[in-house]
């Protein structure tokens, strides 16, 4: 149950949920490729899931935007999201880890 960082990649091993979360920051074309998430079952065997990561740029959905508001005011944030995708909204902490605020399908 701790965060580990390696450059622009952060990992969180949630042992209670049995989930390893991996976060990439500032994705680059060079980050595309084959990744494996696995465990050593014994000294002789391991179990893993292979993942193919592709990195695409879509000018229709901006990478970043800035919204401003004064203390006590309201702010409306609008993000263009393709339909039928899981949507999440998170706040980045001091370690550049995005802490989930809300998500939906």
UniProtKB/TrEMBL annotation:
<protein>
    <recommendedName>
        <fullName>Ig-like domain-containing protein</fullName>
    </recommendedName>
</protein>
<keyword id="KW-0472">Membrane</keyword>
<dbReference type="InterPro" id="IPR036179">
    <property type="entry name" value="Ig-like_dom_sf"/>
</dbReference>
<feature type="domain" description="Ig-like">
    <location>
        <begin position="1"/>
        <end position="54"/>
    </location>
</feature>
<dbReference type="InterPro" id="IPR007110">
    <property type="entry name" value="Ig-like_dom"/>
</dbReference>
<keyword id="KW-0812">Transmembrane</keyword>
<dbReference type="GO" id="GO:0016020">
    <property type="term" value="C:membrane"/>
</dbReference>
<dbReference type="InterPro" id="IPR050671">
    <property type="entry name" value="CD300_family_receptors"/>
</dbReference>
<dbReference type="InterPro" id="IPR013783">
    <property type="entry name" value="Ig-like_fold"/>
</dbReference>
């Amino acid at each position: 149950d701790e965060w580990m960082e390696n450059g622009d990649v952060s990992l969180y091993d949630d042992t209670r949920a049995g989930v390893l979360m991996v976060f990439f920051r500032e994705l680059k074309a060079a980050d595309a490729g084959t990744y494996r998430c696995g465990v050593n079952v014994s000294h002789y065997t391991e179990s893993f899931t292979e993942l193919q990561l592709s990195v695409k740029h879509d000018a229709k959905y901006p990478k970043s935007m800035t919204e401003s508001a004064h203390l006590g005011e309201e702010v409306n944030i609008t993000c263009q999201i393709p339909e039928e995708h899981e949507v999440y909204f998170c706040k980045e902490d001091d370690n550049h880890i995005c802490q989930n605020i809300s998500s939906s399908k």
